[in-house]
Amino acid sequence: MTNETEAPELLPCPFCGGAAQHTSRSNSGDHSWFQNDVDHWIFCETANCYVHVGMCETREEAVDAWNTRITIAELTTTKPKKGETP
Ligand SMILES: [Zn+2]
Prior knowledge:
86 residues; alpha+beta; two-stranded antiparallel sheet; 16% strand; binds zinc ion
């Protein structure tokens, strides 16, 4: 088991700047939309924002997903999208 007290730092929410929090839940099998035995995800604590990353298998994966950011410059750089011919 990972040591829950050694939490990697979470970046603030990219939309509202609010605090982010890790959570996880064990799946009893009656929720087919959960992907793993235990799902981890990170969400924004701000009411009416509640941005979150997808379910991850480990806390580290969820934190990585949350902390991965793309810059506006990268977003606006023209590159072919999936299924599009350049
Ligand atoms: Zn937020």
